[in-house]
């Protein structure tokens, strides 16, 4: 019998992008599908070309991915999982290049900002490109020994480049968080910790956000993320993206969401999904760090 085709997971960018690397790490049995824009990634899942979409949402150094909070609610998809990828940047060059040959370094603006130390050390000029994998491809195609790209080890493998330096990022904790999106929502097993992501817009009245958040405090719900952004071209009220620990049918979170709806409107759940183990490891390290600085 013929071997059934592998399920497909779509990502934004060229082969060798960190989203591609995350697909291979989290879902090694799936075929990655590159797409030019986030909207194309969402469309691939909606149209049945891919089972999942791997979407970067924020980075521990650079912050949230630009525009992603506007795009998630309009995607028509549901968050079904999360993954954390430790970002190890490499200085990628055409084979035979030495450090003394370099005059410029090309990459995405976030990658460049995460590797300022080595650029100062080498005295090279940063050149902003659309993405890390594209920079690696361009350097390889030009065969230019005066230019390097900052990118992944996967990019070096795909485009035939050498890594002159590995782990060149300024911060050791440089980690990107991804969410996985699908056409249908999931219900995490009851024996695992869960995260709920949702959006809401507060009413345009004094202390609306303070009152809306009160239900989470009084019901003991841990909110791990709250970010605001403008929608609709107005400066009157902001829309918020939030993440909390728990499921909407857990009594504490159910009560908190009920109170939120009293002071807000357009409350919409984007996904309920298993909490990745990295969350608990990061929390443990943070608590240890706090303990060390206490008198």
UniProtKB/TrEMBL annotation:
<dbReference type="InterPro" id="IPR018528">
    <property type="entry name" value="Preph_deHydtase_CS"/>
</dbReference>
<dbReference type="InterPro" id="IPR008242">
    <property type="entry name" value="Chor_mutase/pphenate_deHydtase"/>
</dbReference>
<dbReference type="GO" id="GO:0009094">
    <property type="term" value="P:L-phenylalanine biosynthetic process"/>
</dbReference>
<keyword id="KW-0456">Lyase</keyword>
<dbReference type="Pfam" id="PF00800">
    <property type="entry name" value="PDT"/>
</dbReference>
<keyword id="KW-0584">Phenylalanine biosynthesis</keyword>
<feature type="domain" description="ACT">
    <location>
        <begin position="197"/>
        <end position="274"/>
    </location>
</feature>
<dbReference type="InterPro" id="IPR045865">
    <property type="entry name" value="ACT-like_dom_sf"/>
</dbReference>
<dbReference type="InterPro" id="IPR002912">
    <property type="entry name" value="ACT_dom"/>
</dbReference>
<comment type="pathway">
    <text>Amino-acid biosynthesis; L-phenylalanine biosynthesis; phenylpyruvate from prephenate: step 1/1.</text>
</comment>
<dbReference type="InterPro" id="IPR001086">
    <property type="entry name" value="Preph_deHydtase"/>
</dbReference>
<keyword id="KW-0028">Amino-acid biosynthesis</keyword>
<keyword id="KW-0057">Aromatic amino acid biosynthesis</keyword>
<feature type="domain" description="Prephenate dehydratase">
    <location>
        <begin position="8"/>
        <end position="183"/>
    </location>
</feature>
<dbReference type="GO" id="GO:0004664">
    <property type="term" value="F:prephenate dehydratase activity"/>
</dbReference>
<feature type="site" description="Essential for prephenate dehydratase activity">
    <location>
        <position position="176"/>
    </location>
</feature>
<protein>
    <recommendedName>
        <fullName>prephenate dehydratase</fullName>
        <ecNumber>4.2.1.51</ecNumber>
    </recommendedName>
</protein>
<dbReference type="GO" id="GO:0005737">
    <property type="term" value="C:cytoplasm"/>
</dbReference>
């Amino acid at each position: 019998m013929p071997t059934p085709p592998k399920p497909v997971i779509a990502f934004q960018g060229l082969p060798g992008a960190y989203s591609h690397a995350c697909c291979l790490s989290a879902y090694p049995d799936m075929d990655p599908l590159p797409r030019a824009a986030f909207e194309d990634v969402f469309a691939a899942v909606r149209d049945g070309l891919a089972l999942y979409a791997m979407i970067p949402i924020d980075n521990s150094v650079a912050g949230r991915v630009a525009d992603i909070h506007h795009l998630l609610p309009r995607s028509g998809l549901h968050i079904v999982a999360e993954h954390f990828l430790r970002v190890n940047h490499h200085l990628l060059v055409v084979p035979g290049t030495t450090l003394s040959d370099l005059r410029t370094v090309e990459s995405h603006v976030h990658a460049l900002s995460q590797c300022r130390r080595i650029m100062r050390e080498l005295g090279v000029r940063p050149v902003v490109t659309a993405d890390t994998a594209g920079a690696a491809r361009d350097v390889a195609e030009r065969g230019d020994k005066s230019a390097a790209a900052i990118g992944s080890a996967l990019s070096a493998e795909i485009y035939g480049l050498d890594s002159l330096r590995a782990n060149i990022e300024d911060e050791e904790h440089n980690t990107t968080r991804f969410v996985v999106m699908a056409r249908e929502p999931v219900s995490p097993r009851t024996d695992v910790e869960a995260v709920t992501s949702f959006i809401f817009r507060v009413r345009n009245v004094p202390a609306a956000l303070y009152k809306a958040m009160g239900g989470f405090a009084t019901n003991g719900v841990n909110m791990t993320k709250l970010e605001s952004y403008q929608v609709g071209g107005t400066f009157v009220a902001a829309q918020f993206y939030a993440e909390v620990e728990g499921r909407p049918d857990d009594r504490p979170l159910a009560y908190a969401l009920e109170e939120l709806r009293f002071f807000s409107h357009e409350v919409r759940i984007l996904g309920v999904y298993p909490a990745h183990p990295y969350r608990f490891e990061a929390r443990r390290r943070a608590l240890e760090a706090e303990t060390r600085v206490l008198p």
